[in-house]
Amino acid sequence: MTWALWLAVLCCLLPVGITAGGAIHRRVLERFLRYAALDTASDSAARTLPTSEGQRRFADLLVGELRGLGLSDARLAAQGYVYATLPATPGHEGTALPVLGFICHLDTVPLLGSGPIRPIVHPAYAGGDLVLPGDPTQVLSPREHPRLRDKIGSDIVTSDGRTILGADDKAGIAEVLTAIELLRERGIPHGPVAIAFTPDEETGRGMEGFDVAGWGASYAFTVDGEEVGELNDETFNAASATVVFTGHNCHPGSAKGVMVNALYAAARFLSDLPPRQRPEAVDGRVGYQHPHTVTGEEEEARIKLILRDFSLTGLRQRQRLVRELAARTARRFPGVRATVTIEEGYRNMKPVIARHPFLIAAAEEAMRRVGLTPIRRPIRGGTDGAVLSYKGIPCPNLFCGCENPHSRTEWIAVDDMVKAVETIVELIRVWPEHVRGARRRRPEACAPRPAAPSSALSILTGAPSQEEGPPEVPRSGRRRVAATARPQPPKSLRKGATARSRPRR
Ligand SMILES: [Zn+2]
């Protein structure tokens, strides 16, 4: 064997960052800057999908880039979804290996200020405040963002302060494409990999038109988390509630003994909500009820709330609290009627992910191979992956490195983007070994199974959970989802300012 060949083999075996760190930095940054400058804000008022033309243009651009990387089946599907497959390298073809997928979203929240987005690279961060030149009142400071202190020496990217940056989730897209490029260039052996870029995650409609059966992945990761090393396998359970107080209106001049003003009941209801269960009063694993919209007049007052809890029992208790408080309030105000409507939202993906422990083990090993210490952390909100997990594709969330998203001081360290690229490459590389390991542990369970686990269905329908079921073993090959087994997509995956408390997305 020649030295050149030895070197090539060695490059295939070593973690990619050791042999290609500088190249990754340049490529992922170049991609990200191009994508960030595009306006792909989604529009929650629009009825179409995607909800903005900018997303469709971006999707078109990405189809071209995926094809340029050799993913010849890359396509722009109806409603703005991009799907593509990276075929397996020789030795990993066929149907033996479950297809691993990666998902990022095309849209951003509204730009906040006046566009266009002008991404700025602050080279080799030296510490201290970064004043954003387009609006000097926007200052990125380590006092407010302590993780900046860990980024000394890294290039930092921000907007110019007049808009968001949109690293959520264009950093993820740039990272996935750069990982594919590296896999191909360096001849790293891998199984089939499915890619999906989805519209309208920020409006909560990202999974509305997703082709679960046609995409082809058996398991997936969204690349949409924040801090470097973060791995999310748990989300909130979500519900929304509308409380309507109905009174009786008349001319105030002759109102004595006649008028029943629903506004007072609404005010009392709001003030009686437990202050210690407000989103601004809790963090960690504690949920909340959060009134976000009040409309009304004497005749009728309407209050909209969102309810969030990591446990389904906790969510049910919050629903009960809203119902009982509304009824009690109505009793305090003779003549007032109260009605409460509850709408179920997304579900905590933890019970689904817990049945596939090799998924988390593979991601954690990938991180360790690139020198990261994995940080398992629940998301105080929902993800498209949570919805997808209940549609039959278990889907935890990997970090992309974005920080303080949905704000004009959003930022990202290029070093963290490099780590995300390396983690994706390593995850794809260790995937076959982890699948085989899971199958060795439970060889009898290798047969394909229905797409949606029974525990998932029972949780969606509110039946007792069967979270204690045995771990599942990777299914073989490309899967197809039985239409009858697929639960309906949750309607109210709302993020933005409410569903995910800041500084989480
Ligand atoms: Zn995101």
Characterization of this structure:
It is a single chain. By secondary structure, the chain is an alpha+beta fold. The protein folds into two domains: 21-233 and 348-485, Zn peptidases (Aminopeptidase, 3-Layer(aba) Sandwich), CATH 3.40.630; 237-344, 2-Layer Sandwich (Alpha-Beta Plaits). The chain has twelve helices and 18 strands. An eight-stranded mixed beta sheet has the order 1-2-8-3-9-16-10-15, with helices on one face. A hairpin with a 7-residue loop joins β17 (402-403) and β18. α4 crosses α11. It is globular and about 85 Å long. The chain starts with a helix and ends in a 45-residue tail after the last helix. 48% of the residues are buried. The site of zinc ion (ZN) has 6 residues, from α4. Zinc ion (ZN) binds next to α4. Residues 234-313 form the Peptidase M20 dimerisation domain.
Mean pLDDT: 87
Binned, the helix content reads 25-40%
Number of helical runs? Answer: 12
Poorly predicted tracts of residues: 444-470, 476-505
Distance between the termini: 51 Å
Please tell me what the overall shape is.
Answer: globular
User: Strand share of the residues?
Assistant: 15-25%
Second CATH tier, the architecture of the largest domain:
3-Layer(aba) Sandwich
What letter string, H or E per element, gives the SSE order? HHHEEEEEEEHEHEEEHEEHEHHEHEEEHH
Structure class: alpha+beta
The CATH homologous superfamily of the largest domain corresponds to: Zn peptidases
Query: Could you tell me which ligands this complex binds, including any ions or cofactors?
Result: zinc ion
Q: Rg, please?
A: 24 Å
Number of strands: 18
Arrangement of strands in the largest sheet: 1-2-8-3-9-16-10-15
Q: What characterizes the major β-sheet?
A: 8 strands, mixed
Domain Peptidase M20 dimerisation: 234-313
Biased composition (Low complexity): 445-456
Organism: Candidatus Ozemobacter sibiricus
Family: Belongs to the peptidase M20B family.
